[in-house]
Amino acid sequence: MMSQPSPSPSPSVILATASYDHTIRFWDAKSGRCYRTIQYPDSQVNRLEITPDKQFLAAAGNPHIRLFDVNSNSPQPVISYDSHTSNVMAVGFQCDGNWMYSGSEDGTVRIWDLRSGTCQREYESRAAVNTVVLHPNQKELISGDQNGNIRVWDLAANSCSCELVPEVDTAVRSLTVMWDGSMVVAANNRGTCYVWRLKKGTQTMTYFEPLHKLQAHDTYILKCLLSPEYCDPQRYLATASADHTVKIWNVDGFKLERTLIGHQRWVWDCVFSVDGAYLITASSDTTARLWTMNTGEAIRVYQGHHKGTVCCALHDGTDNTAS
């Protein structure tokens, strides 16, 4: 991840953060220098995600999603996605970048045509949606909501194929799926992670086999994230919390490997580098940090936001469309 930026205008590592100060910042990951700032006056930004081809950055706000060109200096979005009616809390892309998905506090999960900006599908969760992830099979979306419901949306059948409630009336704050589709983790407002093995049923449906319950923190977990494919055979779960720490758990037995200490306020978001060797975090203390996994040290602090930094996005892998 820490390679020198390529000579072209676009760096090989795309790192972006957003803050309650109504800006999105792009950073040179290695030097810590901010090289571009986008003003986002309409609302706060709740989530950032970079397209698989590294061309665009999606910013999920209230109630819009805006798509910005990564390689341009234009402050204007390329396109706006406008049919949600409340805070958009989750956004992500199909692996080839063919479509985008989102989840909102308006209680819906939506699928969007990336180019036209039109909403193609809408699923009703009946409670504020906090988190949505796409199964690696690219055929199922998994959502978690404020009432504690986890739902699997089968995109082929266009219906909800599975529902479970790990803890009644305890908001599911974050979901993460192992890159090979073998496991899903849900983190909640009480600092608990529920872990399931994902198995294929007799039909196409995925079903959840309870594997582990991890009391990771004593307060809110704001983000949980499983390590990427190129981190194997080591497999980790990162949990970012309101207790100012991020904990790294070994998925083999869910033993605590290390605690990342340095942020002064809530840690809202985290993202692994493509090889799992580094972690970027975003915190209410206004900073983002780069941690090295083998020592748990913060080796870079990204300073420039004036208010809490609530989300971060990183793409340091290859451009999927070019490979």
UniProtKB/TrEMBL annotation:
InterPro entries (UniProt xref): MLST8, Quinoprotein_ADH-like_sf, WD40/YVTN_repeat-like_dom_sf, WD40_PAC1, WD40_repeat_CS, WD40_rpt
Chain ranges passing through the membrane: none
Pfam families reported in the protein's UniProt record: WD40
Residue runs in coiled coils: none
Protein's UniProt keywords contain Repeat: yes
BP GO annotations: regulation of actin cytoskeleton organization; TOR signaling
The keyword Repeat appears for this protein: yes
Superkingdom assignment: Eukaryota
Keywords: Endosome, Repeat, WD repeat
GO cellular component: endosome; TORC1 complex; TORC2 complex
WD repeats mapped onto the chain: 15-37, 81-122, 122-155, 214-259, 260-301
Entry function: Component of TORC1 complex, which is an essential cell growth regulator that controls plant development. Acts by activating transcription, protein synthesis and ribosome biogenesis, and inhibiting mRNA degradation and autophagy.
Protein's name according to its UniProt entry: Target of rapamycin complex subunit LST8
Organism: Rhynchospora pubera
Lineage: Eukaryota, Viridiplantae, Streptophyta, Embryophyta, Tracheophyta
